[in-house]
Amino acid sequence: MSTGFLVLLLGFLAMGAIGMPVGFAMINAGVLYLWVTGQDLALAAEQVLNSLFNSFVLLAVPLFIFAANIMNAGTISNRLLDFCQALVGRFRGGLAQVNIVASLIFSGMSGSAIADAAGIGRLMIDMMRERERYTPGFAAAITAASATIGPIIPPSIPMVLYALVSNTSVGYLFLGGILPGLLMGLALMAAVVVIARRRNFPTERSVPLRAVPRITVRAFPALLLPVILLGAIYGGVTTPTEAASIAAAYALLLAVFGYRALSLRGLYGVLVESTRSSAVVTLIIAGAFVVNYVVAAEQVPAQLAAWLAGREVSPTVFLLLVALAFLLAGCFLDATTMLLVLVPLVLPSLDHLGIDRVHFGVTITVNIMIGLITPPYGVLLFVINGLTGISLRETIAELWPFLGVLLAALLVMLLVPETVLWLPRQFGYGG
User: Fold this and answer.
1) At a CB cut-off of 8 Å and minimum separation 6, what does 379 contact?
2) CA dist., res. 169 & res. 163, Å (int)
3) How far is 159 from 152, CA to CA, in rounded Å?
4) 282 contacts 65 by C-beta, under 8 angstroms
5) Which residue, 52, 72, 194, 313, has most beta carbons within 10 Å?
6) Per-residue model confidence as pLDDT tens digits over 374-409
7) Separation CA 83–CA 218 (nearest Å)
8) Nearest Cα to Cα of residue 120 among 136, 137, 105, 138
9) How far apart are CA 232 and CA 244, in angstroms?
């Protein structure tokens, strides 16, 4: 490790410790590296500008954020909740099951775990806490756990970012996330069944069968959104970025003209919030480009690949070690930073070990999402705490069974690559 690289690491940690935003900390640490190594400081700006302007796929990120915020501001989320209630609300622990099914459906629209938790998740927590039917900690725990499905079933903002750094097809990554997302949902639902019986959770008033068609019709236009999105991509009509613009436009038209649930004032608020969120993500991406330049200049990935070449490390052992490392990193870093800074370090090793990049991309995204709820510093835990006021201690105490089944699902994906690759291969993927 060179002196310059050590200065970058120490500078980044020091700036993060004093509360500097991650994006600014990465950019400043990169500039510090350039100064120590005697390079032109303008290289930092050059890396940022060239990388941002040459990446068409990045445009999908603010568009997916905008679409998710539109759905939170309109009545789309409420209609989806009514539909989920009609499907699974009648069972014991029904509202917890509704929470999971709602996340499965909403994940096909937002592409963000935080959007899921802050939007439909907050509504679910309020419903579950009414008349003290569920403890606050349980409501928060199942909401945090189910929100991890959001970026797995397409669309997925983290998968777009992974495609950016790995030169992997966004379309095949999206396809690869469908079965793992369903597996995560089924694992959580099975856990709720066991817990509900053991703790005698209440049953909800069942929706009359005659009302189900009406509820389905009300939700049907919203349910069409992921169908339109995926159909456009896999039908060869649009690129993922163009499909993201279609999703945003469809959500806007549906909220304004279809459901008449979004006023001009509300639209202004959506635009402001979407711009703010997009700016935060873009700043982190800009910082990651600077750090990645340093990583490439220091030949860190090549050194890691050479180290592995001198040892007999099987692909399975490598994947398990990386999974453990990313779970630990998820306690301290946000998903964007891990995808843009840590993932490029291991990409050359994937090629050396013969690990498929689509398989790795989907599993590492699942890995990172689980890291977001890993105690004690999971980002999603803090988001839900800030939105609801439910203490972290209560949430973490109820979280362990859900964390366990999600880790079991991740282990299946790691050990059985076909859980990820089967669907992409049906659409022509040759990896």
Assistant:
1) 114, 330, 334, 335, 372
2) 6
3) 8
4) no
5) 72
6) 887 677 787 787 777 888 889 899 999 999 999 999
7) 8
8) 105
9) 10
